[in-house]
């Protein structure tokens, strides 16, 4: 498995990735204060109050009044900031940290924020479509991050990414290898496990598709796809 740790891809349009860092900060704060158990043991009520519950979303079941904190439509946004465990949080935020800054750079701050939330909403809807009667809350930023991954793969497939292979061996590989492997893994897991697993694989697919479509329209004017025009270092001619 590839674990990304950094990329060789400087910002071209923005001085700093404020939205990416802000999203990470909000996710971490929500986890620490509401679901980690450090201050309150609130994972279950938070998940049921702010997660996407397909059976409730589709009016097959009614949410108990103590959990009915926000309108069901709003949970397509709120679920993105709730994580069920430390590794769940860290893995999502690591991918967002490595790849989010350049997608934000390609779109601008506000369009990237809209892009991120729309990818998460698309992921939630995909999960809801596949499991319309599920009573398990969908939580986590994986769907939104999947959209970021799709956008980065379409924008910068040739950029080199530092990864840890099996959490130990550092390698510098093209983004197309690292993220392409991740995309293929999601498709394989959907095909092999179906929709009854603990991991919401269809939400990942929904986020990927949403991100791939939205980046076509939400990137800055003049920002190319697939690293067109990228100048790479070459060996000097020898005479």
From TrEMBL:
Organism for this UniProt entry: Microbaculum marinum
Annotated localization: Membrane
Annotated GO biological process: proteolysis
UniProt cross-references to InterPro entries, sorted A to Z: Peptidase_S54_rhomboid_dom, Rhomboid-like_sf, Rhomboid_protease_S54
EC number(s) given by UniProt: 3.4.21.-
Chief subcellular location: membrane
Coiled coil: none
TM segment ranges: 18-40, 81-100, 112-130, 136-155, 175-193, 199-218
Gene3D superfamilies reported in the protein's UniProt record: Rhomboid-like
Membrane protein topology class: Multi-pass membrane protein
Example of a GO MF term: serine-type endopeptidase activity
Protein known as: Rhomboid family intramembrane serine protease
